[in-house]
Structure formats: structure tokens, C-alpha cells
Amino acid sequence: MSLSQSLPDATSSVLGKASPTDVANRPFAHVAIDAALPADYYAALAQSFPPLEAFLRDLERTPENHAARLEFKQLQSAGMVSDAWRDFFAYHVSREFWRDIVRVFGDELRIAHPGLENKIGRPLEEWRVKQRGGPEEADIALACQFVVNTPTSATTSVKPAHIDRADKVFAGLFYMRRPDDQSTGAGLQLFRHRGRPVFDKHETPWNNVEQVDCLAFAANRFIGFVNSVQSVHAVEPRTPSPVPRRYINIIAELPAKAFKPEQMGKARRFYYRTFQRPPRRTIGRED
After folding, report:
1. Going by C-beta distance under 8 Å and a sequence separation of 6 or more, which residues neighbour residue 18?
2. pLDDT at residue 170 above 80?
3. What was the pLDDT predicted at 81?
4. 93, 142 in Cβ contact below 8 A?
5. How far is CA 164 from the centre of its chain?
6. Separation between Cα atoms, residue 159 and residue 167, nearest integer Å
7. Which of 88, 124, 164, 188 is the most buried (most CB within 10 A)?
8. Considering only CA atoms, which of 59, 131, 69 is closest in space to residue 97?
9. Would you say the pTM of this structure is higher than 0.90?
10. SS3 category, 82
11. Distance CA 49, CA 231 (A)
């Protein structure tokens, strides 16, 4: 572990307040934890969140309501990381945090992906863990990213109905809403399939799913979920806002795919891409 000499204690975990009884199963396994971190720790993180300019990568203009991501190492090399963020990232790419995930979501991970432990050859609790991109061998890789959705002058959604990449088994969103963010919307919409799940890569048409819930975008709120073919979600449209929507993306991914989402046929894919798919709203790589 190269981010910090020592890890903070479990009160610094976004899952520290959660237990298996907090996991909701409708429409797929997830938790929503308010006041996830102690107030003083959260305040230190919020105060030192990277400015919007750090995400724009020398763009001549800022596209509206686009997702932009920064890896920790990009900011660390530029000397733009506070001690609070160094500790946060150190914990959330550690073996201790993976055990936190298993403590809360272990049963649901086994239900969603019943063959994984046999395939890996050891129980979830004993999986070897590394930071994504590290050279060592591991069963699971963890990553954290700073993310913003850029300001917008129109009501739009930054992300359509989709599941995360098939190598991810867990995803988390640690919301860091600014006090001066007066917009409405921008919550996490949760969907269930109307019929047989079918995808264009990882996206699915709106008319193939039905919204079951919407989890509000709020400061110091953590939302985590097991990723599978059932885990369709989207970002609720956000009303005009001169300030960015801020959060941390937390990822647990395998070296190979955990599942294979069924793909549309050629004719259905052509129709979706031509008439139904919203415009892409991402700066750089999607994750």
C-alpha cells in the first residue's frame, strides 16, 4: 500500500455504519447510508475536494452536464491531495475495506454470483486484494475516483439506464453535494426489468425497464450495490446548476467478467442507437 504509511480506523469507512440488515433487495441489493462519515472528517474532505478546473484537462470549453473523472495518482503527482484524502483513498482500496464490503454484502454477492468463490478457490473473506493497476497478483482490485458532473444550463441526465461493466461485482457512490448546489434531481434511479434483460453493451432502453426507487443526491451519503445483470440504474435528470455535482466512485472489479449480459440483435441495436440512445456525456474514459 503506497498511499499512506498507516490506514485510518473503520470510522473512516463509508460502510462503517452499515450492517447486512441495512441491505435492501428491491430491485437489487443496495444500501443508502446517510451521514456515512463523521462530520469533521467529511468537512475536511469536502473542503479539499479538487476544483472543477482540475477535471477539465485543458478543454477550451466545458461541456454541460458531462461526467469527468480523476484518479488519485493524477492529483498526487501534481501535489493536489490533502492528508484527509490520502487517508480516505488508502482505506478504500485496502483489504480492510474489501472485508467491509463482504461483511455487509457477502450474502448478496454469493446470491448474485454463486460460482465466484469456487472459481477463485477461496471464500470472499480470504480474497487477495490490490489497488487497481498494482503489479501484484490479486483476486479483486479496488479503485476510487474523484468525479464531477459539470454545470448545466438545461435539465438533463448525465447517464441513461445501464448496468456497470461485467467485471465489477460492487460499486459505490459517495455523494459530496456542495452547500450552494440549489439544483433538484440528480439522484440515483433504480430499475427492474420489464421482461427479459437485453443490452447494448451495458445500456438498456428506457422502455425495457421500470423505475422502482430514486435515492437522493445528498452530502455525506453513501450508496453501494452489488453489480449484476439485474442492477440497472441511471442518474435522475438534474435541473440547471452553475456548480458541479460531486462524488467519489468506488469500484471492486475482477480480472475477468463476473457475468455476461445478453446483447441485442443487430436490428434492435441499430434502432436503439439511432432513435433511443441519449447522447454520451462523458469526458475521457467511462468507468
Report:
1. 31, 33, 104, 224
2. yes
3. 78
4. yes
5. 9
6. 19
7. 88
8. 131
9. yes
10. coil
11. 29
